[in-house]
Amino acid sequence: MNTKTISIDIPSDILLALNETESEFKKSIKISLAMRLYKLQKLTIGKAAQLSGLPRFEFETILSENEIPISNLSINDMMDDCKKLI
Questions:
Q1: pTM of the full structure
Q2: Which 3 state secondary structure label does DSSP give 68?
Q3: 78-84 long-range Cβ contacts below 8 angstroms, 24+ apart
Q4: What percentage of the chain carries pLDDT values higher than 70?
Q5: Would you give the DSSP letter of residue 54?
């Protein structure tokens, strides 16, 4: 997999205030960004899981824990699908 490195500057006292290591903070940022981009429908659930660095099932679990639906289907989409089955 090709990757791209993006650097951001974080004041060191932020890590101290959060009581997190650089590695822990990086993981938190990746998961938070992936959740946000998924919620905004900028990424599919698979791509968001990939960005988070987590297996899809684990990412879906985190979405559920944060009350973010793991499906973007609307009620109308589901009703249309049900009609197709009949």
A1: 0.81
A2: coil
A3: none
A4: 100
A5: S
Mutual orientation of helices 22-39 and 56-65 as an angle, nearest 10°?
80
Which of 71, 63, 77 has the alpha carbon at shortest distance from 44?
Answer: 71
Q: What is the pLDDT of residues 3-37, one digit of tens each?
A: 899 999 999 899 899 999 999 999 999 999 999 99
User: Which residue pairs, CB below 8 angstroms and at least 24 apart, start in 41-44?
Assistant: 41/72
Q: What is the 3-state secondary structure (H, E, C) of 4-40?
A: CCCCCCCCHHHHHHHCCCHHHHHHHHHHHHHHHHHHC
Question: Reduced to 3 states, what is the DSSP secondary structure of residue 82?
Answer: helix
Q: Name the one residue in this structure whose structure tokens are 């679990």.
A: 61
